[in-house]
Amino acid sequence: MFATGIENSIPTINNGRTRVDQMEVCGHYRHWRTDFDCVEELGIQFLRFGPPLHRAYRAPGLYDWEFADLAFADLKRRNIIPIVDLCHFGVPDWIGNFQNPDFPQLFASYAAAFAERYPWVQLYTPVNEMFICAVFSAKYGWWNEQATDDRSFVTALKHIVKANVLAMIEILKRRPDAIFIQSESSEYFHADSPAAIGPAEVMNSKRFLTLDLNYGRRVDSEMYEFLMDCGMTREEYHFFLGQRLKQHCILGNDYYWTNEHRVFADGHTEASGEVFGYSEITRQYYNRYNLPVMHTETNLKEGPSGDEAVHWLWKEWANVLRIRNVGIPTVGFTWYSLTDQVDWDTALREQNGNVNPLGLYDLDRNIRNVGKAYKKLIQDWRDVLPASSLCLTVPIVSPAHAGHSRDRDQQAEAARRWPTHATEGALPETDA
């Protein structure tokens, strides 16, 4: 699955007073048809995309599907397969933020309503980058609740992951062959000195918390104590252990130059740049969860030479081929996003209007060098990989075939067979 995405982050800043809407500032609301033209021009069939949650979810039971109806009808007409991103770093004003204990059930209701309205959609990322969402909102103090304490972090984390789990449950009721592609940040923390080994080990355990809970995997004793000390109850913890949804999932993981960190003795961190790289860190995540892998996000700025992003694309693709060639079932790759972004140089904490040249296209919808390189990469590799794949085919029903009675039978059969057709390791763990 060669993919790109429409950046739809919607966090709030300034203590909730200011909404940052990347679809707005990047021009997608005005140019969405042109953006879909660009997807087709690149030869891409899979698009990470979702309606803006704060605009579509107006109140409990009240939805505004106007934009979604237009956009998803056009995607279906073009036979572009959406990987639907339902919650991307923010919630509607009336929900507040991720400290709200009602958020999981409210979000599950929204996911149910979406699945009811668009029954032909099969691929979902219910909540994007759950770990980063919790850290930036409730530990770094950057977004939404802008908290900086461990209790707020654990509260956000448990609500975000529960929302993701409940959404998967509701979607599966309406689409039994739904496949969930987690887009989760893949992190690693390097100790700067012997005195930093302890803090780095704790951080390297915390990085797995969202996926451990999402997949019903028992956390280690240190993380269990951390969760309990910061407000999670035993009943809340056992809710996650009681779910059996892993067999419906693909381990989508994101990797950027900033995903590796240097940890110092006093516990503070800074970006280390690429040290291990995508292949080694992905191996760590795969060994923990034993699920098919998809590289769901990467990018790099186009710099003064014009080929910086092209070199990064080549390097990430080499890493993807590496994990595939050592036997890790790998089903997709994504350059994120389709167009340049705005103000990600300050992690959306400030509204400076700085255009970040990270896209396959600029904001005038002119193709960048990395867009041309990605188009050629797709042309070169599209027909080669399926013939030598180490992962059996993902049972996807394209929009063009969704809804026919014969295809509904195929969907039901795919749902029944998918748990054993992904990988042996995708079956529920006996100790989870």
From TrEMBL:
Q: Which GO terms describe its biological process?
A: carbohydrate metabolic process
Q: Where is the composition biased (Basic and acidic residues)?
A: 404-416
A single Pfam family it belongs to is Glyco_hydro_1
**InterPro entries this protein is in?**
GH, Glyco_hydro_1, Glycosyl_Hydrolase_39
Question: Which GO MF terms are attached to this record?
Answer: hydrolase activity, hydrolyzing O-glycosyl compounds
List the keywords (alphabetical): Hydrolase
State the residue spans of region: Disordered: 401-432
**Family annotation (SUPFAM superfamilies):** (Trans)glycosidases (SSF51445)
Superkingdom classification of source: Bacteria
Task: Tell me what this protein is called.
Answer: Glycosyl hydrolase family protein
